[in-house]
Specification:
Layout: E1 5-7, E2 22-24, E3 39-41, E4 56-58, E5 73-75, E6 90-92, E7 107-109, E8 124-126, E9 141-144, E10 154-157, E11 162-165, E12 169-171, E13 175-177, E14 180-183, E15 187-189, E16 192-195, E17 198-207, E18 212-214, E19 220-228, E20 235-242, E21 247-252, E22 256-257, E23 266-270, E24 275-278, E25 285-294
Parallel strand pairs: 1-2, 2-3, 3-4, 4-5, 5-6, 6-7, 7-8, 8-9, 11-14, 12-15, 13-16, 22-23
Antiparallel strand pairs: 9-10, 10-11, 16-17, 17-25, 18-24, 19-20, 19-25, 20-21, 23-24
Amino acid sequence: GNDNIANGVQSLYSNTTGSNNIANGYQSLYSNTTGNDNIANSFQSLYSNTIGNNNIANGYKSLYSNTTGSNNIANGVQSLYSNTTGNNNVANGAQSLFNNTAGNYNIANGYQSLFSNTAGNYNIAIGYNSGNQADTAANGLLWIGEGDYNNAIIYGNMLTDSLRLNANVNVGTNLMVNQSATIGTNLTVHGEIINGGLINKDTVLILADDETFQFPTTSVGWAEIQCDSSLIEKTWGVVSWNGDGSTSLRSNGAKFVNTDIDGNYACFYDGGVYAILKNTSGYTLTYSIKLHYHN
């Protein structure tokens, strides 16, 4: 072998024709025979490697069992410890990807992250113990935060384009969902939620007497409206409209009408091109509106 560097008792001990390897530490790259371009730093790191190439192992017994796996990076005590033939994995943190043997293209950042994975591919786990309880051969999964499916702050399945959030979510502007999203607790959106072309938006209006609100011009839409003020009794309405401005009042409370008449708390009516909400009560009122409509 050519251009090798070995520092430590029995480092690169078995090397025959392997080249461009660096071994620092007791029995690091001990079994390597023909593997090339490997770096092993620490006690028995890459100990079992024979023909694997382009591996980097930093930490006590990191990539210890690797034999033919290539293009792996292991940083931390016993990271990728059990890997034998897996390729293109990245493990950062003590015992991260500890049980991986043949899994490929996995990324694990954090103590014991993806600890139980053996043959799963294309997984990403970030955080202490993240993805630890996962199916040992699962593919294309994402964990961010401590724990498994029910505990990690973010859990995703990249094969089904689905996402689960196990936390309160506060969105500053708009949220677009092209496939599916599951929120474990609460979702607050200061803007629009767009799901498969359906736009959902919460808004609060303050309308003076005879002031109007114009609903979006769309092919179809509906809304839930609540009217509240210390000056009047609370009222409500469930309404719908079409792209030509035609309207329908599906259900309603007191003084919530489907025409423009004075003395009502909420008038929802056809404005010609737009659906209109108008306050004709003589007071300034507050309206909480949940909008649902298609572009």
